[in-house]
């Protein structure tokens, strides 16, 4: 039997967590599951943990939030350990890089810049500094390729979030509606085009038009200063609550949703909506 290495793991500090991660990944008695993971296999878990953090915040559950933030931190530590094993970087490099970036992005706090008196001004300044960084990065390109406004918007983002980011980038260079009113007109236009394609029965065309309609709805949310991802997450929560009311009401009568006519389901839905509002 292989003798497992014994190490002391202080449970109250970051060094203890880093040691724990190294132990889990150790080929000398570590965890088989942790050892076989890669950056790609962990990425979906990171996305899931980030959404669970957001969910805990939505519910105002601070104890749950503490746990979920720990899970999210563990994801960062996991990536750092894998990168360290490959000789690329470690956790301390990550911390140093984000510290340098935050100092660079806050010259009004850590430098001599003035005129940043509120959050809106800081947002404008932040985006300006990011644009300058992108230009500097493009200037370092040996091929001399120009940096487009939409470059480096991550393709791995959820679709609604990425749509909002693409639209914000385009808006910064002047490609934007002046207010929400013309976006409503565009929503009506896209809805009409979708209805026409439904009549045609062309599945590919219907998908195309549904995508255009969703993209336009994201634009409408942006013009109203609403985060579409958050808005849809809240709508999902309302749907779950209302549907749960329907199920519980029917179960109390020893009945099921699948055996109930749509008219009654709709009545119970409206009852749940009134109760929720």
Describe this structure in words.
By secondary structure, the protein is an all-alpha fold. The protein contains twelve helices and no strands.
How is this structure best summarized?
This protein is mostly helical and 277 residues long. The protein has helices at residues 14-25, 32-36, 39-58, 62-86, 91-105, 107-110, 119-139, 159-172, 181-200, 203-223, 228-252, 262-276.
Secondary structure topology:
Blueprint: H1 14-25, H2 32-36, H3 39-58, H4 62-86, H5 91-105, H6 107-110, H7 119-139, H8 159-172, H9 181-200, H10 203-223, H11 228-252, H12 262-276
Helix pairs in contact: 1-4, 3-4, 8-10, 9-10, 11-12
| CATH class descriptor name of the domain at 14-105 | Mainly Alpha
- What's the CATH topology label of the domain at 14-105? Helix Hairpins
The DSSP helix count reads 12
Helix/sheet category: mainly alpha
Beta-strand residue percentage: under 5%
- What's the average pLDDT? 89
Poorly predicted runs of 5 or more residues: 1-7
Listing every helix as H and every strand as E from the N terminus to the C terminus, the arrangement reads HHHHHHHHHHHH
- The portion of residues assigned to helices is over 70%
Indicate the radius of gyration in whole angstroms. Answer: 25 Å
Give the CA-CA distance, first to last residue: 63 Å
Quantity of strands, as a count: 0
For this entry, give a set of tags.
0% strand; Helix Hairpins; 12 helices; 277 residues; mainly alpha; 71% helix
């Amino acid at each position: 039997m292989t003798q497992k290495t014994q190490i002391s793991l202080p449970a109250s500090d970051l060094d203890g967590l880093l040691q724990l991660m190294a132990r889990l990944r150790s080929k000398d008695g570590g965890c088989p599951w942790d050892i076989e993971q890669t950056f790609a296999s962990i990425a979906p878990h990171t996305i899931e943990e980030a959404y669970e953090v957001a969910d805990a915040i939505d519910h105002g559950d601070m104890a749950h939030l503490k746990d979920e933030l720990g899970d999210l931190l563990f994801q960062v530590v996991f990536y750092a350990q894998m990168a360290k094993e490959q000789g690329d970087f470690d956790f301390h490099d990550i911390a140093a890089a984000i510290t340098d970036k935050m100092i660079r992005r806050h010259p009004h706090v850590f430098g001599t810049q003035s005129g940043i008196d509120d959050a809106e001004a800081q947002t404008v300044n932040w985006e300006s500094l990011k644009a300058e960084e992108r230009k500097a990065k493009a200037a370092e390109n040996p091929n001399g390729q120009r940096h487009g406004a939409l470059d480096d918007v991550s393709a791995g983002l959820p679709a609604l979030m990425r749509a909002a980011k693409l639209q914000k980038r385009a808006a910064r260079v002047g490609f934007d509606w002046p207010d929400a009113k013309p976006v409503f007109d565009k929503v009506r236009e896209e809805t009409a085009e979708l209805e026409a394609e439904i009549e045609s029965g062309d599945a590919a065309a219907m998908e195309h038009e549904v995508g255009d309609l969703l993209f336009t709805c994201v634009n409408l949310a942006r013009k109203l200063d609403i985060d579409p991802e958050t808005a849809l997450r809240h709508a999902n929560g309302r749907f779950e609550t209302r549907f749960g009311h329907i199920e519980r009401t029917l179960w109390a009568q020893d009945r099921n949703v699948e055996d109930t006519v749509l008219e009654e389901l709709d009545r119970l839905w409206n009852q749940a909506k009134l109760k929720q509002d």
